[in-house]
Specification:
The protein has about 650 residues and is mostly helical. The chain has helices at about 1-5, 10-20, 30-40, 50-60, 70-95, 100-115, 120-125, 130-145, 150-165, 170-180, 185-205, 210-220, 230-245, 250-255, 270-275, 295-305, 320-345, 345-365, 395-415, 420-430, 430-440, 450-460, 475-485, 500-510, 525-535, 550-555, 590-600, 615-635, 640-645; strands at about 465-470, 490-495, 540-545, 555-560, 565, 575, 585, 640. A hairpin with a 3-residue loop joins strand 4 and strand 5.
Length: about 650
């Protein structure tokens, strides 16, 4: 009974923490797309994450549209708190062998709370993000392995292919945990589960080489002849369960045929489905050559590790002495916890070690990431291509493993010092206090900025406008507002970076046949779409955040009407950028901008705190841009420059 209740302290504490810091609306990056896709039962960007969308859609059914974003964010909080509860239960089993029940409960609670307070874990728990659900699936798979439920483990591997393959980062730990016996290591179980994990990975990435590795592993597993027919039968059952678990991938094939509002990649044929699953739309990196020096890729991980335990001491990418000291202290606690874990239960210690290695070294080697936007300056060439954003979330399972050991180390330390074990739990929970102000989404800007951007982009657009935007952060919040809140569904949003994808152009023409003339013998471009819109009497606008080079390609004659510039009739009061003076000064429609300011009220967004992600600062500046342009134009009596005034 005590073991069953070991999950309670960590789950309750973290659930309360996540709820108190939960985003009350949509946030930037993928959250708006996921919420819109769940609401419309659609298909988000590759690999489509169909199981996540199905679960999130079912979770969201009781929520009214006005609270739908909050409900979706709560799903992430519930998943992460659930993962903590399962982890606490497992840690209790591992330390209960030599610790008293009271100390074991404290150790399990400290380990799970510390893991759940890591910045990357916490950030995923307070917005709609697939990595929270992936963490829960990894914890469920580890829990099944702890109880040696081999077939259930295989089914969970299959579910990872349909949810998100990041859950398979835990597969080495799962294999170690499930195959280890008290007196031996069962290589037959290990090879069967290796074949199952590789099969799930091959299905979830549609990668030929991983598929070949899965076949080879299956043959090797069958080669354990001394295990006899039951071994072959178990392997066949495992593979069947992997396929069954991965079957939600077929949902995309069926659902795409109905063309839901969010239908990225349009996987309505088998060829298109495989392209979405395999993420063919993106520039996938091979293992070699490395896209940044290998040493720098590992150093980038250390940058992310320094963010995990005391980000409030320096909530930017620049390290501070206080933050580094706390990071080193918790690293020392992790070593203490790992040492004690090894003494208490070598089997599970090897599993968590495998989880840590696969979640750090393994992810670094496999993903072959470019340098992050904040790392390698002065080392790499100034024009080096970098990741679009910080990628710390890819390493979440490695941080989870380190957090478990740090929390266990805190309780171990107070036990050695003969102090009350409750003090160890408090020490393990210290990252909650040291990260709170840097991570909370309860207040500005996370509480309302993305929603304000979504409203601001479309607030003063004329009816039926074709609006060109720059990318994820000025597309996804608008998708959320349009699909969930039914705001400005008359606007055609064109995401410029997607125009090069054939499926995207097909979708535009399929949904808006009047734009069919955008297809030309030379191909479809932003300009041909704009010309097709003009030809049928649709206004054309562009977000202020759209790159100047992209606006030039649109060949517009622009005037500012808010967070967008509207293409005015040629010869009117406008400014064309397609000229030789490199000017980006636009005339201001004072009436429209004044109306926009009254409707959007950027000042209500609140202050923008320092952050490791500059997206909030950028869009807060963008929201203030129309007011600044208007004031500059009124003061100087001439058009104000977008670049010099707003610095976008």
């Amino acid at each position: 009974m005590t073991e069953r209740r070991a999950w309670v302290p960590a789950t309750v504490v973290l659930a309360v923490v996540y709820i108190l810091t939960l985003a009350p609306s949509v946030t930037f990056w993928d959250a708006g797309e996921f919420i819109a896709a769940a609401h419309s039962l659609g298909i988000p960007h590759p690999p489509g994450t169909p199981l996540f969308i199905l679960l999130l859609h079912a979770w969201g059914l009781p929520w009214p549209d006005s609270w739908y974003a909050v409900g979706s964010n709560l799903f992430s909080a519930a998943c992460t708190a659930g993962a903590a509860g399962l982890s606490a239960t497992m840690v209790y089993r591992w330390v209960r062998v030599r610790w008293t029940s009271r100390d074991a409960i404290a150790g399990s609670a400290g380990a799970a709370i510390c893991a759940g307070a890591m910045v990357t874990v916490w950030s995923n728990a307070t917005e709609t993000e697939v990595y929270a659900a992936s963490l829960l699936l990894a914890a469920v798979t580890l829990f099944a392995a702890e109880h040696r439920r081999e077939l259930l483990v295989g089914y969970c591997f299959g579910l990872a292919a349909a949810l998100h393959v990041s859950a398979l980062v835990a597969s080495p730990a799962v294999i170690v945990l499930c195959a280890s016996r008290d007196d031996r290591f069962d290589f037959g179980v290990a090879m069967r589960l290796t074949a199952a994990a590789l099969s799930a990975m091959a299905i979830g990435t549609w990668n030929l080489w991983i598929g070949i590795a899965a076949v080879v592993s299956s043959v090797v597993a069958l080669g354990f002849r001394h295990l006899g027919v039951p071994n072959r039968a178990t392997l066949l059952r495992l593979m069947g369960l992997v396929i069954l678990g991965a079957s939600p991938l077929l949902f995309m094939l069926v659902r795409a045929g109905h063309d839901p509002a969010i239908n990225q990649g349009n996987p309505s044929t088998l060829h298109a489905l495989f392209a979405v699953i395999g993420r063919r739309q993106y520039d996938l990196a091979p293992i070699w050559p490395r896209r940044a020096p290998l040493w720098l890729q590992f150093a980038n991980w250390f940058e992310y590790a320094d963010w995990q335990t005391a980000l409030s001491f320096g909530p930017t990418v620049i390290p501070t002495p206080q933050r580094v000291v706390v990071s080193l202290c918790f690293a020392a606690l992790a070593i203490v916890g790992a040492t004690e874990h090894r003494r208490l239960d070598r089997r599970s210690w090897l599993a968590i070690l495998a989880l840590f290695i696969s979640g750090t070294v393994g992810v670094t080697l496999y993903l072959n990431l470019r340098a992050s936007p904040s790392f390698g300056w002065g080392i790499l060439p100034a024009d080096a291509v970098r990741e679009a954003r910080e990628r710390d979330y890819f390493f979440v399972l490695g941080f989870w493993a380190a957090g478990l050991w740090s929390g266990l180390g805190a309780v171990t330390l107070v036990r050695v010092r003969k102090l009350p074990v409750q003090a160890g739990v408090v020490l393990a929970a210290l990252p909650i206090a040291l990260n709170w102000t840097a991570v909370t989404r309860r207040g500005p800007p996370d509480s309302r900025l993305a929603r304000a951007v979504a409203h601001g982009l479309v607030a003063t657009l004329p009816p039926r406008t074709v609006m060109f935007v720059a990318g994820d952060n000025d597309s996804y919040p608008v998708w959320f507002a349009r699909e969930v809140l039914a705001e400005r569904r008359d606007v055609v949003l064109v995401t410029v970076p997607l125009i090069g994808a054939g499926w995207y152009v097909d979708e535009l023409v399929r949904r808006y046949p009047e734009l069919a003339s955008a297809r030309t013998s030379e191909g479809t471009t932003a300009r041909t779409i704009a010309e097709a819109a003009h030809a049928v009497g649709r206004p054309v606008a562009a977000s202020l955040t759209l790159n100047r080079s992209d606006r030039i390609l649109l060949n517009g004659c622009w005037r500012v009407i808010g967070l967008a510039v509207l293409d005015a009739p040629t010869g009117g009061n406008c400014s064309s950028e397609n000229s030789s003076d490199d000017s980006d000064a636009f005339p201001i429609d004072t009436a429209m901008v004044g109306q926009w300011i009254r409707m959007v009220s950027p000042t209500r967004v609140g202050p923008v705190r320092a952050s490791i992600d500059p997206v909030a600062e950028y869009f807060a500046r963008a929201l203030n841009c129309p007011r600044d342009l208007l004031e500059r134009a009124v003061k100087s009596g001439r058009s104000a420059s977008l670049d010099s005034t707003c610095k976008l």
